[in-house]
Design goal:
- This protein is an alpha+beta fold.
- The protein folds into two domains: 227 residues, 3-Layer(aba) Sandwich (Rossmann fold), CATH 3.40.50; 110 residues, OB fold (Dihydrolipoamide Acetyltransferase, E2P), CATH 2.40.50.140.
- It is built from eight helices and 21 strands.
- A hairpin with a 6-residue loop joins strand 20 and strand 21.
- The protein is globular, with a radius of gyration of 24 Å.
- 36% of the residues are buried.
Length: 353
């Protein structure tokens, strides 16, 4: 295991006026599963590649176990990286793919055999060691790619969206395998993804990035329940947080035609009212308002209902139980759970405490 420390880590590509990674500060603890989450182009993969030594560092400092490694070549950093593409050697068997890196490092034949057999058993590859990659399923190929990293026993594991090429069912299965693997190995892992479900279910902590910067860092539930700004509120969660324009009228917060009991912030006249779809109920308890049902999306375990509210410029999403009886065209009352709502500054987009 190892600690990884990023201090003002910055990347600027030649010919670009914009920073791909802008002064990122992040400390990853021994044995922690850290997830870098954000949309495409936010700088998360570039950050990971700088940790791996595959990208040069424009400014700042990168340390592994307290040792500065900015100028240390990738091969000498004692890290292993699993990519989005499986990157297997097509002409080699599973066994040879797993053993290739160890052979290049001059590890003894007996030690290679011992490690490869142990990893193959752990990942359910023991029966597949003689097969070539073309004879494997997508999930099996990804397990081989994972095994090639594990067999090296590195200080740090790096994952760059390793499940994005798998179908939905395989992704769910592989998520579970990676979680069990982390608990079994107790290794330090940094995992890049744009998939919020992967981030919420796998990470000890989530580092959310946008525009090359870290916008929030915390445990999955803390980040979900207390978003730092409107970007985090809208990005984390599916369906996303409803962000509705509001104004104070002296005693209440007015959102459309709803008058909500929210303590007024002295510095805010206009605000953005944020509430997640699961924190809205289709009933008439206070405080409520009425809306027109635009669409009903039954998902089996739950139902997503899309409403149009008077004086609200965009649709409002409500996550209800499977038993929701709403029909398109109905006029129905909806109730806001104010204990779970947030207010955001429309100018800075930051959450108002």
């Amino acid at each position: 295991m190892a600690t990884v420390s990023l201090k003002d880590l910055t990347k600027r590509y030649p010919g670009s006026d914009l920073l791909a990674v802008d002064a990122v500060n992040l400390d990853v603890d021994h044995g922690e599963f850290m997830v870098l989450l954000g949309p495409s182009g936010c700088g998360k993969s570039t950050t990971l590649r700088m940790v791996a030594g595959l990208e040069s560092i424009s400014a700042g400092s990168l340390s592994i176990d307290g040792k500065r490694v900015n100028e240390v070549p990738a091969k000498d950093r004692d890290i292993a990286m699993v990519f989005q593409s499986y990157a297997l050697y097509p002409h080699m068997s599973v066994l040879d793919n797993l053993a290739f890196g160890l052979r290049r490092r001059g590890v003894s034949t007996s030690e290679i055999d011992k490690r490869v057999r142990a990893v193959a058993e752990t990942l359910g590859l023991a029966e597949l060691l003689k097969r070539k990659p073309h004879a494997l399923s997508g999930g099996q190929r990804q397990r081989v790619a994972l095994g090639r990293a594990i067999v090296r026993d590195p200080k740090v594991f790096l994952f760059d969206e390793p499940l994005s090429n798998l179908d939905a069912a395989l992704r769910v299965g592989m998520r579970g395998e990676l979680i069990k693997l982390h608990h079994r190995l107790g290794a330090t892992m940094i995992y890049v993804t744009h998939d919020q479900v992967e981030a919420m279910t796998m990470g000890d902590r989530i580092c959310i990035m946008n525009g090359g910067k870290v916008v929030q860092l915390g445990s999955p539930l803390d980040v979900y329940r207390e978003p730092a700004d409107m970007f985090v509120a809208s990005f984390l969660g599916s369906p996303p947080t409803n962000l509705l324009p509001g104004r104070f009228n002296g005693t209440h917060l007015v959102v459309g035609q709803a008058h909500l009991p929210v303590p007024r912030n002295a510095n805010a006249e206009q605000v953005i009212f944020g509430i997640r779809p699961e924190d809205i109920r289709i009933d008439g308890t206070a405080p409520h308002t009425y809306g027109e049902v635009l669409a009903v999306e039954p998902l089996g375990a739950e139902t997503i209902v899309r409403f149009r509210l008077p004086e609200i410029p965009h649709d409002v999403l409500v996550r209800g139980p499977r038993s929701v009886a709403a029909k398109v065209g109905d006029r129905a009352p909806i109730t806001f759970d104010m204990t779970s709502a947030h207010l955001f500054d429309p100018i800075t987009t930051q959450r108002i405490a």
